[in-house]
Amino acid sequence: MQTPSGHAIDATSASRLVVLASGGGSNLAALLAAHDDPAYGARVVGVVTDRPGAGALDLAHAAGVPSAVVAMKDFDDRAAWNEGVAQAVRVFRPDWVVLAGFMRVLAPQFVRRFEGRILNTHPALLPSFPGAHGVRDALAHGVRITGCTVHLVDDGVDTGPILAQAAVPVHDGDDEPTLHERIKSAERALLVETVGRIAREGLYVAGRHATIGG
């Protein structure tokens, strides 16, 4: 879908969201709370996790949202697991795939299958501090401002076009848990706002530049 000349994704009255999560699902909970408002423009229609005991499953069950577990141990290799995740996601016919605390790197084949429709959150101001330890790396570098990013997913690690960012100050005496908690609070709000705007207003992508609405 993404081409050098750019592409547009139109808004719909009810975009279908499939959320991938590995943990407790705080971002999922925020999306579920938002989707109860018809004016939000999107609904979570499926949840996929790689961990049978993930709290995200309990949230999905409580909200009446169907879910699937695609555990790595149930597959012969990573390629087969990636195909299993893709099949589980495809069942829900998503308009958007939202990675909300999903702690696995998806294969390029998965990304191509849902190209231009995968959103991810990252606890740093990309392109600074990509990867699994964005909060720790920001602290180690001594930055005074960090934050969170919502971006499209491409074949790299946290390298896709940036959709939205929010700044979070680093306080004297911060450690990784205290800073991460403040970032996660900003991240939930940013994700909900960004997904809703895309659903209502559409998204235009040209190279590395993404514009919501307009």
Automatic annotation (TrEMBL):
Q: What is this protein called?
A: Phosphoribosylglycinamide formyltransferase
At the top level of its lineage, which domain of life is listed? Bacteria
Q: Which PANTHER family match?
A: PHOSPHORIBOSYLGLYCINAMIDE FORMYLTRANSFERASE (PTHR43369)
Entries under Pfam families matching the protein: Formyl_trans_N
Q: Which InterPro entries match?
A: Formyl_transf_N (IPR002376), Formyl_transf_N_sf (IPR036477), GART (IPR004607), GART_AS (IPR001555)
Q: Which reaction does it catalyse?
A: N(1)-(5-phospho-beta-D-ribosyl)glycinamide + (6R)-10-formyltetrahydrofolate = N(2)-formyl-N(1)-(5-phospho-beta-D-ribosyl)glycinamide + (6S)-5,6,7,8-tetrahydrofolate + H(+)
Q: Which residues bind N(1)-(5-phospho-beta-D-ribosyl)glycinamide?
A: G25, S26, N27
**Associated pathway:** Purine metabolism; IMP biosynthesis via de novo pathway; N(2)-formyl-N(1)-(5-phospho-D-ribosyl)glycinamide from N(1)-(5-phospho-D-ribosyl)glycinamide (10-formyl THF route): step 1/1
Q: Where does (6R)-10-formyltetrahydrofolate bind?
A: R78, N120
Q: Name one GO molecular function term.
A: phosphoribosylglycinamide formyltransferase activity
Quote the catalytic residue positions: H122 (proton donor)
The UniProt record lists the Formyl transferase N-terminal domain at 16-195
The record's function comment reads: Catalyzes the transfer of a formyl group from 10-formyltetrahydrofolate to 5-phospho-ribosyl-glycinamide (GAR), producing 5-phospho-ribosyl-N-formylglycinamide (FGAR) and tetrahydrofolate.
Tell me what gene encodes this: purN
Q: Which UniProt keywords apply?
A: Purine biosynthesis, Transferase
Which parts of the sequence are marked as the site Raises pKa of active site His?
D158
Similarity-based family: Belongs to the GART family.
What Enzyme Commission number(s) does the record list for this chain? 2.1.2.2
